[in-house]
Structure formats: structure tokens, C-alpha cells
Amino acid sequence: TDEAGKSDRARAVDFPVSVVLPAGGTGERTGLQTPKQFCTFLGRPLISYTVQAFERVSWIQSIVVVVAKENMDLMTDIIQRFQHKKVRVVPGGSTRHRSICNGVLALGGEGEGETAAIDRPKVVIIHDAVRPFVEEDFLYKIAMAAKEQGAAGAIRPLVSTVIATTAEGYLDHSLERAKYRASEMPQGFTFDVIYQAYQRCTESDFEFGTECLHLALQYCGTNAKLIQGPPTLWKVTYKRDLAAAESIIKDTLSRSACIVTGGSAHAATLADALQKAVGALALELEVIPDLMGENSSYLLKEWNFIQVSVDSSCLSEVETLLRDLEAANRALLHPLVVIWVRLSSSDEPSISGREVEPSGIMELASEAKTQNILLYGIEIHQAKDTEQWERSVLKAAEITSALIRDRTPALVGQLLQA
Amino acid sequence: TDEAGKSDRARAVDFPVSVVLPAGGTGERTGLQTPKQFCTFLGRPLISYTVQAFERVSWIQSIVVVVAKENMDLMTDIIQRFQHKKVRVVPGGSTRHRSICNGVLALGGEGEGETAAIDRPKVVIIHDAVRPFVEEDFLYKIAMAAKEQGAAGAIRPLVSTVIATTAEGYLDHSLERAKYRASEMPQGFTFDVIYQAYQRCTESDFEFGTECLHLALQYCGTNAKLIQGPPTLWKVTYKRDLAAAESIIKDTLSRSACIVTGGSAHAATLADALQKAVGALALELEVIPDLMGENSSYLLKEWNFIQVSVDSSCLSEVETLLRDLEAANRALLHPLVVIWVRLSSSDEPSISGREVEPSGIMELASEAKTQNILLYGIEIHQAKDTEQWERSVLKAAEITSALIRDRTPALVGQLLQA
Ligand SMILES: [Mg+2]
Ligand SMILES: [Mg+2]
After folding, report:
1. Ligand 2 center to residue B12 CA distance, Å?
2. Nearest to B171 among A182, A226, A239 (CB)
3. Most buried residue among A183, A253, A386, B173 by CB atoms closer than 10 A?
4. Closest ligand to A126 CA?
């Protein structure tokens, strides 16, 4: 389903679009103290992932995050810490509709005269802070349909049969599943429709309602266009959803790694062998001699790094790499994995090396961790026996995959044996 | 919500209850080749977890698993490999209702005369193979309500608003969320009700229906009692649900560890320090000198093991532990974590030890892995400096927690530095 949408990615809407992100939930259904939108994943609050999903869409001009008054400072800190742009924070109301309404008004409803009118977007997209995986191509569909129809919303097929219950807790009747859908987010509205809907709706709507599409229908006569969204639009609701979200985030971060060989022929041979072994484990690898010149562009993309050193107990190459990554601010949004692979050419473990590195790499790893970079070491012995060598390379590949996928902070600085 | 039900655990129903477990799904919604019920978690198929959930309930007499004909052999293999009792496999039909009906008939509907009547359960519980976390106390509620009312079913509040769509894909109207519920599993029926419902229902019901509660209402006039279940009853449906299920399974396996000190006072000191440090990380620890006598009961429960050795490069203690665990068949249903913690009393790394163990523990770990036991090593140096010692113990505790939680097969046999 992801593939079909890719041709849409280049398209941009040619009218102003802004986003209202209600983030006032209390998270009671996860059973946790922290509201879900502020739960951290790899050190970053969920809401920051959601904000980033909108921020990277070029044609979205601004994002209004609506939070409970007691979380205004927390949200402001998050925006500063993760260097979000395009974002404003406004205080929420006592219900979901009051909060969304505050967000809509902040987009230009309250101002007088020309200034307010100029700032007003043509289309407002409303989303949930706890649905972090929304993609540009789907936002494009919602924005276009909202402009054409006045309102548009994401739907999903029902997973369970919906039933009506009697007051006493017995089955009254079940609904025919095919005729109904779950209403999800994002939803899009022309500014005029959502603004008018909130102007016209009753106190009872503000107090007890939850569905913006319903207000658009009832108060503006707008039948929203419904568009089936991908399953990744689901709402992080229960404790299990936190694990699911973390897994999706880790999958995204674990797609590719860049092997830096330092130009050594031995290291290049190892890199090729690793590439072959890791290829079977679904991790894209690129092999480069260094990060100079054109290759410095690898520092700016979503790569993890594997620095191969031959016959060296010296960490200077990996130190240089760490400095470059820190300079590029690459670990701002999520921890970055750097693996130092040391190839020792003797059949025996090198005693001199073993005495030195464990603490050397451990210290370097402790420093790197303060910069959100997770440094691990793998030692691999260049056996003369081909079969043993292949086994070691496969093992190094398995360890590499596991380290990149799991990102376990407790294991930084370890020199693992392949 | 879990706490409230615990007093129910001791209660047993005093009438025969059997289970029908339709497991014929094709898993298309996960986007994976393997149907969800056969996806493995820590080496074991999901359906085996679900079967185990029923098998451990003393008052459930038999379980009928209904699978597609092409998966009969696979299912039979799973039952043998994981030593499931009480289970029969029957071939499914072309739809969900046909499969469930086959399961019900296998419980005694088709036989003639007294034998069939004797085998027939009073109550049949119907569940999904892909809802592995069902608990005894909830099954008790369903079984009791089914016996009293003829039918009972699990419900959950709706997470999303349900909407009716027009044929053209526009919003028609939205349902008032409070009046409706999601119908989930398990459901329970007296044998007579579910048997009669399938005898009386139409070909169209068999072909297009999915809801057993609906058949009981329509063909037997039985309004099912609806009981709200815990969120853990959810159906593993999408790819993200696989990660959520794995996380719940890992949480369950990571609750407790048993520290074996070998009777050494130094080891006991370390164990106490670890207990204190790990306590903050939410892992229950017990410290015992060995697994002799009464302590051998630890081998039969859900404990992970930490073997502490002092000043020893010798793995004999951990070898003994591994043999005991293998003899107790403890790793049949899931991988078991054993951590060898080596306490070296010198301030310096002991050179002699370092040369020997990495391959010694690696070999032992490779053997253990074939028995589904994951062996890892942690080396901790007994520093004279108290602050440094406390730092090392905390680090050992963090590594221990991570190893027990993550159960990463790629890292077995590593000797990690604390
Ligand atoms: Mg809404
Ligand atoms: Mg049913």
C-alpha cells in the first residue's frame, strides 16, 4: 500500500495548509502516569515525532499544538530541544472540541481585518498527537479532498463487529460490518467550514461531541469525503501500542548502514563480506573509504555507521567519525549507532590490544552517549581457515544487525567477539 | 484491572467446558507470508501461546484447533514439539462459521448414542488463535455467564467513532459511540445453543456471517450476556501487533531472576548489591546459595538465572546449572536467560582469565542455545574504590536487565564488561 502512493510524494498543494494538533489527552488507557503524547521513544517524546511528520512536508505552512495549560512549558521545551520550526503552542480547553476550536481560532479566526485574513490557511488539517506515522502522500489526498468538498477524513475498515447493547448489558443487535467504517485522523476542512461549524455548534456539542466530521455535516451541510488510510494511522491508545510504535520507529532507523573502510584493502574485503552476510538480514549497506568530499553527504542522511579498522588498537578513526557526526548534529532527533569493527590479522587474540581497548572504547562510548550516539565494538579475527572466517563474518553481521535494531543503551562501549 | 480479577483465579467451574479455536486465517492484514497464528515469537508459534493459555486452566477439558487442511501437519507438529495436551486438530471449512461449526461437531455433535453425549461439554468457549493473552479469570466469567444465559461474549469500548458511508464514499452519519461496543473474543455458549444455531442457520449465514452471538440470537432467541474484557484480549491483526505481542511476551518472561551465589560470601555481597541496583529497574530477584534441596523448585518456575562466580575462570558452576535446567526441560516453551557473572577480585583485568573465557563461554553458549538457553557473561572487577564499585554494580545491573529483557540470540557467549 505504501508503494502505490510514492508517485504522489513530489506533488505539492498550491494553497495554504495549516495543522491543528490537539495534544491534551491524559493517557489513562495506557495505564501510565505520563500522557501518551509525552511518552519518550528512544529519548524523544511521541509528540515530537508527530510534529516532525508534518514539519517535513514542504507545503504545510504552520502547526498549532494545543496542550493543557499545565503542559505549555513542557511543550515549549520540547519544541526548543528538538529544534522544531513552524510550530506554535496554544492552551487547550476542557474538552476535545474546545481544544480543537482554540487551535482553529489561533490560525486567524480571532484577528480583525486584513492581517488575520492573510494568515488564514485555505485548508486546516486536524490530526492527533498520538498518531505519529502520517505520510505526506496521505496528507496530500486529505488536503485536496478537503479543498474540493469542504471536508475529508481518514477511515479504516472495522476490525471487530460493532454491537448495540441493552441497558442491562445484553446483546441487542449487531451491525453489518461492511456498511460501517472507523473514523480516524487526519481530517481536513476548509478554514471556512471548520470555523463556521465551531461558530454554530451548541454547548452540548462542545461538551460531549468528539467528531469534527459530524459538526461539518450538521452545521455546514458538508458531507465529508472519506478516504481509506493505511493501518499505520492508528492511534497510540493502550500500553501495547507503545511497544508497537517503538518497533516501527526502530525499523525506520535500522534500514541502512554505511561501512567506512579507511581505504584499507583488508577492511574493504571485510566490508564486502559483511555486506554479503548482512544483505541476507535486510539491512542496506554502502561501502565507502571515508567521509571526505562527496561522501560527506552520508553524514546528513539516515545512515548508521560501521568503522572498520585493521590491525589497530587505536580508536582515532572512530573518534574522527564521532566528531564529524556531532558537528553535523546527526543525533538530534534519535540515537545514532556507530559500530567499530576491529579486524585483527593474527589467528590468536592480540593480548596487547585486549588489555587496552575495553576501557578505551568504554570511555569513548560514555562520551558519545551524552551526544546521543551509541558506540559499540566488534572484534573479528582474520582466520586462515576459510570456513572459520566465514563463520566469524556471519557472526559479526548478526551482531551488527542486532546492535543497530535494538539500540540498547546498556551495551555501549562493549567490545564484542565475532 | 488485572488486580481486581485475581481473587477469581482459584475458582473452578463444576461443569465440563471445551474450547474451539478457529485458526484458519490467512494473515493478509499483517502483510506477511506466514499466517499470523503461525508467526513465531521467541521461536514459538503464536497459536502455541494461545493453546497454552487454555491448557493451564484446570477446568478446561479439551481444546479443538480448527486449521486449514494444508496446515494440519504443521499444527500437529507444533502440538508435538511443544508437548501440548488436551488438544485435537480438525480441518476447517471454507469460511469462519464453517470452521467453527466443524469444531463444535468434533466436540460430540456428530456421534450417535451415549458415547457422544458423555463427551459433550456443557459449555463451549470459542476464541481466536490470534488472541494469545486470555486469562483464567476472564474465561471463568464467560463460562459461568454462558451456562446461565446460554451465550456470553467479550466486549470492548470503541476506540474510534463508527460512521456509515454513502455508496459514493461520503459521510452519511456517525454513530453515538456510547451506545455501541466492539464484539471481541472469547465467547461462550452452552453446547445446545451453539449446536442448534449451526443446525438452523442458512447457507448465507455460513458464507457471509462472522458473529456467533448473532446466530445464537437469531436462531435460538438467546440474548448473549456481554462482559467487558481487558485490553490484552485484542486480536493480533496488523504487523504492528506482532511487535506488541512480542513485547508483552518478553515482559512476562522478564519479571524475575534467581541469583545463585555458590555459597561464597563475596558472591553473596555482589548478589545483594545487584539486588539493590536491579530493584530500581523492576526485576524481582531472589538470592540463593545453590539449587539443592528445596531450592530445586526454582528450576520449575518462571525464573531467569544469574550464576555468580568469584575469582574463577572456571565455568563448572554454570555448566552444572545448565545441565539442571536442561534436565528440568525448562526451556521447552520459551528461551531461558542464564547470566554468568564473574567477579574478579583484582583491580586489574586478570590476563589469564581473559585469554581463556571468551572462547570457553562462547562454546558453552553455542551448545546451550541448541537447548533454547541463552547464556551471556558479565565480568565485574572488585574495585577498592567504593564509588567505582557501585558504578560497576549498577552497570552490571543495567546489562543484566537488558539481557533478560531483550533475549538477543546474536549476543550469546559474549563476556560483557561492567
Ligand atoms: Mg474529530
Ligand atoms: Mg463469532
Report:
1. 25
2. A226
3. A183
4. 1
| Contact call for A210 and B244, based on CB within 8 A | no
Mutate to test the interface with A, among B149, B156, B171 (most CBs of A within 10 A): B171
Domain of residue A378: give its range. Answer: 254-417
Residue A121 Cα, ligand 1 centroid: separation in angstroms?
19
Q: Above 70 in pLDDT, residue B118?
A: no
B249 in any annotated domain: no
pLDDT tens column, A15-66: 999 999 999 865 555 566 789 999 999 999 999 999 999 999 999 999 999 9
Q: Which residues of chain A lie closer than 8 angstroms to B149, CB-CB?
A: 170
A382 sits in the region (left: phi over 0; alpha: psi -120 to 50; else beta) called beta
Give the Å distances, CA to CA, from B20 to B100, B133, B403. 7, 16, 37
* Chain A closest-CA separation from residue B30 CA (Å): 10
Q: Is residue A244 part of a domain?
A: no
Q: For B138-149, how does the pLDDT look when each residue is reduced to its tens digit (9 = 90+)?
A: 999 999 999 999
Q: Are residues A309 and A195 in the same domain?
A: no
Q: What radius of gyration do chain B's Cα atoms show?
A: 26
Residue B17 forms beta bridges with which residues? Answer: B60, B123
Interface test with B, best of A155, A240, A359 (most B CBs within 10 A): A240
A51: which 3 cell numbers? 510534529
- The one-letter code for the residue type at A282 is A
Alpha-helical (H) ranges within A56-135 are: 72-81, 96-104, 113-119
What is the tally of structural domains in chain B?
A: 2
Grid coordinates belonging to A262? 579507511
Say which amino acid occupies B252.
T
Question: In this structure, is the dihedral angle defined by the CA atoms of residues A269, A270, A273 and A279, taken in order, positive or negative?
Answer: negative
